Amino acid sequence: MKKKMWILGVSFIMLLTFAACSKPEKVKEENKKIKVLASFNAIADITREIGGDKIELSVMVPKGVEAHDFEPKPKDMAYLNEAKLFVYNGLGMEGWAESALKTVNNNNLVSVEASKYCNLIENKEEDHDHDKEEEHSHGKYDPHVWLSLKDANIMAKNILDGLLKVDGENKEYYLERYKKFMDENSKLLQEYDEKFSKLSNKTILVGHEAFSYLARDFKITQKGVQGVFAEGEATSNKLKELVEYSKTNNIKTIFMEKGGSSKVSETVAKEVGAKVETLNTLESEGNYRETMRENLEKIYNVLK
Questions:
Q1: What residues contact residue 229 under an 8 Å CB cut-off, 6+ apart?
Q2: CA–CA distance, 103 with 92 (Å, rounded to integer)
């Protein structure tokens, strides 16, 4: 009888021990983050703003690589196979995205084209003659839509919807962060709208016409050395035209893209006695709102 009771007692203790050991595993599973893959830095940072610490975020295009020139490697496709959500810009910015989504073997993957429903600007490459194949791969519209504070809010809503599809349990968390992102963008928009509205000169010369959406937000006129995709070399006629344009419009600063080639911008600047400043497109690096503020402040200080 004593032996029987001893066996029962040991069994009970083992049962309690097993239950105690299994609890942390359950908690760990409940706290598991959602795997999210974003195409490049700007898209990743907006996604991070909404997803916060509920997501495990990775960026597909490495720093210093152009998003439209990127080709996914096997390790990138492996992560896409594991991800719950893939967020990309669209509009031809990532020419590889559609084929990657067709190739991936992940039935649980939700993809978000962040530029959907945004107020798009048609891509008019007046300074470059693209063949039909290039036009098709680039798309009909300027893809740099995230550089509009107004349209970034639409992109954030698209990302929010994607997160709710894969993780509806954290709806209130994502909604709160989305509202915060939208409110802070709107405050920044209002702040610089008031500043720019007081200026008489609102013309800027840029090395790469990536800032059309930002310019539209604040009724700024943008003239570019190179077009939307910064392809090809500026001809002697183009350089002559830009020098004349700079003199006529009293251009004292030429903006070039951070990380881009400064050769043409510096050539024009030397001809007209202007200086060269950098603007960040957020494609490779930078926190979204901090960088947008820095860009706006640089432009404002040049124009005031």
A1: 68, 125, 138
A2: 18
* Residues in the chain, overall count: 304
Give the angle 44-291-258 at the CA atoms, nearest 5°.
Answer: 90
> pLDDT of 42-72, one tens digit each?
999 999 999 999 999 999 999 989 898 899 9
Q: Residue 112: which of 45, 37, 7, 183 has the closest Cα?
A: 37
Chain-centroid distance, C-alpha 254:
24
Tell which phi-psi region holds residue 128, choosing left (phi > 0), alpha (psi between -120 and 50) or beta.
Answer: beta
Average pLDDT score over the chain: 86
How many CA atoms within 13 Å lie on the side-chain side of 113?
14
* Distance, CA of 58 to CA of 54 (rounded, Å): 13
Angstrom distance (rounded) from CA 62 to CA 133 = 26
Question: Rounded CA gap, 254 and 277, in Å?
Answer: 6
All structural domains of the chain: 30-187 (3.40.50.1980), 191-303 (3.40.50.1980)
Q: Distance (Å, rounded) from C-alpha 294 to C-alpha 304?
A: 15
Task: Assign 237 a pLDDT band (cuts: 50, 70, 90).
Answer: confident
The residues, ordered by sequence, that sit 6+ positions from 34 with a Cβ below 8 Å of its Cβ are 51, 54, 55, 56, 84, 85, 163, 166, 167
Cβ distance 68 to 18 under 8 Å?
no
Q: Which of 109, 62, 78, 83 is nearest to 283 (CA)?
A: 62
How far is it, in rounded angstroms, from Cα 84 to Cα 25? 21
Assess contact for 268 and 274: CB atoms under 8 A: yes
The radius of gyration of the chain from alpha carbons, rounded to an integer in Å, stands at: 25
